[in-house]
């Protein structure tokens, strides 16, 4: 009985920590969307528009505002805002669970601190379950973001209308189109994201202080740097994901076909479309994400 008690207590602590990670991740995601959505819309429109539609990121913003007003920059925000809580909640929960898994499979480790490769592995693993939520949300978001560009008529009235049309068009498979490209983006991206955050935050923590303490400057800098690291890797697969998810059914037979046709039509540089807006968004949005995560985690630690 006594030998089982510590294990049971440890299990309860682990479960509690994972619940906190889930809630804090969701809160951080809301912060990310509120700060970063206009940048994301600009990126997506640059990635999916035909040649000559826009001269650059500033032109996207100018034309969007001229046509739809400032609120046009927040078109398509409902899908990520509705989906961001489970997406980020699952991402931070899965990252926490992946770290615990690494500890479990390395019982005789010399250091309790995870190495950079181990942090990256935990980050990569966190993307696998998260993709199941991310892919359909991204599919709806992209379709809402690109409609109306180039003078085209708006086809969808909102999120529910997008999902209804997609299901009628091709069932569940249509709703989840682009899942492979989403994982290709988020696997390496999450590996860089979490590892960079942990390493940068530790580096910026003053001597004698703990990285777990709420140091706003370190959190903002580390979170922003993590976002830049992630998007430095993620742009090419993100371009492919956006094109697959926004194209009419049958346009591409898969990721490789999309890569081949994109390069043939627009050159290799097309794989980096949207790099500017993505980089402009990366720092503030992800600084807001980790600030939201860390601040809410601090509150949760005080509650239970």
From TrEMBL:
GO CC list: mitochondrial membrane
Give the molecular function GO annotations: O-acyl-L-carnitine transmembrane transporter activity
- How does the protein associate with the membrane? Multi-pass membrane protein
Q: Which Pfam families did the record assign?
A: Mito_carr
Organism domain of life: Eukaryota
The family database entries (SUPFAM superfamilies) matched by this protein are listed as: Mitochondrial carrier
Give the subcellular location. Mitochondrion membrane
State the InterPro entries in the record: MCP (IPR002067), MCP_dom_sf (IPR023395), MCP_transmembrane (IPR018108), Mitochondrial_Carrier (IPR050567)
Sorted alphabetically, the keyword list is: Membrane, Mitochondrion, Repeat, Transmembrane, Transmembrane helix, Transport
Member of which family?
Answer: Belongs to the mitochondrial carrier (TC 2.A.29) family.
Name of the protein: Mitochondrial carrier
